[in-house]
Amino acid sequence: MLQIIDNIPVSKVPVIKKVRNGSGFYIVTEKEGIYTLKKDGILFTVKKIETDDVFKFTDVQSFCEDNQANLWIGSFKNGLIKLIPGPDGEKTIVLFNKSSGFVTDNVKTVYEDLEGNIWSGNYGEGLTQINPRLFSNQTFDRNRYGNTVFAICSDNQYLWIGTGNSLLKTDRLTGKVVSFFTSDSGLLKDTVTAIYKSGEESVWVGTYKNGLYVLNPGKEKLSRYAIGSGTLENSVTTITGR
C-alpha cells in the first residue's frame, strides 16, 4: 500500500539512506534540507535536522553518515558539508569549499571507507581524501579516464572509482591506476553511477544508461545485465546488499 508522507516539502530527493543505528531513514532533499523518517505504529514521524546556523541547502547531490554519527553532504555551490551532532541534537556545520582551502565548490559524491576515511568525488576535480590526510587530492587524465567522480567503493587493497568515462581500479596506498575498464573489458563507455563490493566478492557496477555489470573475482572482464529495453530502466543510481 502506498502512503503519502507529509511534512517533507516538495523537492527532489536524491538520497534515502537508513540511519546507521537502524532507527529509521534519512530523507535528503536537494534544496529543502535533511529529514529523519521513523515509523510509529502504522504512522510515520518526520523531523527536520536542525543546525545552529542559518544555512540553506542547495543542489545536494550525495549523503553519508560516518561511524561517529557525523553527516556528510556533497553539494554543488556549497562544496562538502559536515554536520557534527551536538549534545541537544542540533548539528554544527563545517564547510569544505574553496573559501576554506578545499579544491572545489562542487562535490558529486561522498564516501566512507572501511577504515573510516572520508572521500569526496568532485565535479571535474578528481578525488579528495578529507581525513586523516586533510585535502589530499588526486586527479586523473581528463580525456582518458575522466576527472569527474560519480561513485566510490573500496576494499582492503583497492579503491574503485566511477567516472564520466568508465571504471577505475586504483591502489589505495599510492593512488596509481591499476586497471581501466573499457569496452575491451566488456564495459560500454558510459558514466559509472554506482559501485558495490562486499569483502572479496564480485564488484557490481551501475551505469547511467547501460544497466548493471558484474566483475567476478579473478576476472578482468565484466558481464552485463541489461535490466530492460528502455533507457530509464537501464539507469542505475544505487547498488546495495548485505
Detailed description of the structure:
With 242 residues, the protein is an all-beta fold. It has no helices and 20 strands. Strand 11 (127-131) and strand 12 form a beta hairpin. The chain is globular, with a radius of gyration of 18 Å. It starts with 14 loop residues before the first strand and ends in a 17-residue tail after the last strand.
DSSP strand content: 35-45%
Structural class: mainly beta
The number of strands is 20
Describe the sheet with the most strands.
4 strands, antiparallel
Radius of gyration: 18 Å
**In DSSP terms, counting alpha (H) and pi (I) runs of 4 or more, how many helices?**
0
Sheet with most strands: strand arrangement: 1-2-3-4
Spans of at least 5 consecutive residues with low confidence: none
